[in-house]
Amino acid sequence: MARTGRPREFDRDKALDAALTLFWTQGYEPTSLNQLKACMGNISPASFYAAFGSKEALFREVVQRYLETYGQVITPLWDETLAPRNAIEQTLRRSARMQTTRSHPTGCLIVLGASNCSPENQSVQTLLAAERARTRKGIKACVDRSVANGELSPSPATQTLPTLFTTFLHGMACEARDGDRARKLDAAITTLMQIWDSLALRPKSVSSRQ
Amino acid sequence: MARTGRPREFDRDKALDAALTLFWTQGYEPTSLNQLKACMGNISPASFYAAFGSKEALFREVVQRYLETYGQVITPLWDETLAPRNAIEQTLRRSARMQTTRSHPTGCLIVLGASNCSPENQSVQTLLAAERARTRKGIKACVDRSVANGELSPSPATQTLPTLFTTFLHGMACEARDGDRARKLDAAITTLMQIWDSLALRPKSVSSRQ
DNA sequence: GTTGTTCTATACTAATTGATACGGAAATGG
DNA sequence: CCATTTCCGTATCAATTAGTATAGAACAAC
Among A46, A112, B5, B151, whose Cα sits 20 to 30 Å from the Cα of A67? Predict the structure, then answer.
């Protein structure tokens, strides 16, 4: 459907990607509209608000794009064709690699994107907290699935696994931001996964290094 | 030594504590001078700058105070009278409890205090990164010490332990901020420490729950 | 009580924040 | 060509940012 009127002069998609990079680097609040407009191709305030509505609306769109691209590293959590152990291991390894890759900002936008917020931006903080809760739930579902299929016993130790893996996953955001490389985190993941094996009644899946 | 002149009307120490709480909750950048002055007892701008110099100088003082109080939970790392395994376990358990205690903000100021920063405040970010590096070094020293005394073998798996524990430690800041309670993290720590035991050649220290 | 010192209150600075108003430019559809 | 639609550039908004200037108030020492 052809739209009438003067066409937009900048590439909305590229502008969104540029905003994603800036928000990922600095976080929500410290990123000013001036910086955003500059990195989006020196667009005017009018163009900005016409195309994206507001700073918060842009951020929400940025988070959405992040989840659809970089954030895909954690989708194994919801892939029931994968053995639960493998799903978690893949999630950790792919996150480690993604968060340490230098062709884009390091760390995780969902963990670090709005970690410093004044009260008036609590909605933004809540947005990311909800995503983290979703991840937590995905990890727990994998462990539950493994208990259900008899690989893991429903022991107290098993019940600590979701927190253990989630805490490590979120901690990688800090380590990646501080300069840790993929290889280092990946090696730690290998050691971490041994906990699973030590709790397994009967091994159902083998370790895979993608 | 008695100082001449009009004495200060507010309690500098209490004001510093109030600033600590505010910075801990919101982080460095989103915390405005107006908020600070308000929570410090509605002190005037003149009083603020006379007593603390600048926002950044206040933050540095706040970090110092944090390290001298709440941050003391990680001092076992440098206590060579403790068995290395015990030092790390104590550090994790005490951090978990401290970060989840509700009589003050949750999470860790060193991890979360300046995670969102614009370029002009990079010095603040660097300040906290240096502290995290110090922690990382302390954890590694414990593992090295354990290898040196023959408890752990210098295997590849052993060499991943510092990253493993550090990542988990820093990850707790996120989990605590998201509402996890001490008991939950503490249980995960119990499971995490089993990795150490599985790598130990000969157990030299027993698990302690403070 | 006077002097000297250090505090506080008020007003203010220049710069920046996120967001708008408005007029003109540039395209489409007829 | 014209009419309509949409976008862009500029100027601007009120509010807030970190930080100061100035004048006077409140204490100590003498």
Answer: A46
Q: Which nucleotide is nearest to A31 (CA to C1')?
A: C17
What are the DSSP calls for B22-78, one per residue? HHHHH-TTT--HHHHHHHTTS--HHHHHHHH-SHHHHHHHHHHHHHHTGGGGGGGGG
Shortest CA–C1' contact from A3: which nucleotide?
C28
Residue B204 to residues A79, A91, B164, B197, Cα–Cα distance (Å): 42, 35, 21, 10
Give the Cα-Cα-Cα angle A48, A38, A20 (nearest 5 degrees): 75
Of B31, B118, B191, the CB nearest to A195: B191
Distances B78 to B134, B161, B164 between C-alpha atoms, Å: 11, 17, 18
Digit-coded pLDDT (tens) for B9-25: 899 999 999 999 999 99
Structure tokens at B32: 């405005």
Chain B, 55 to 114: residues with Cβ < 8 Å from chain A are 111-114
Residues near A92 by Cβ (< 8 Å), separated by ≥ 6? Answer: A165, A168, A169, A172, A189, A192, A193
CA distance A194 to chain B (A): 8
Burial class (CB in 10 A: 0-12, 13-18, 19+), B5: exposed
Amino acid (one-letter) located at A51: A
Residue A1, min C-alpha distance to chain B (Å): 42
- Which of chain D's bases lie under 7 Å from a protein CB? 4-12, 16-23, 25-29
Which residues of chain A from 1 to 60 reach within 8 Å of chain B, CB to CB?
26-32, 35
| Phi, psi (rounded to 5 degrees) for B152 | -110, 145
Q: Residue A175 corresponds to which tokens in the numbers above?
A: 């380590």
Please check whether residue B161 touches A, CB under 8 A.
yes
Q: Output the six-digit token pair for B133.
A: 């590096």
Q: pLDDT tens for residues B44-87?
A: 999 999 999 999 999 999 999 999 999 999 999 999 999 999 99
Q: Nucleotide D6: nearest residue by CA–C1'? A: A5
**CB contact at 8 A, A152 and A201:** yes
| pTM, entire model | 0.94
CB-based contact A185 B167, cutoff 8 Å: yes
CB-CB under 8 Å, B111 with A112: no
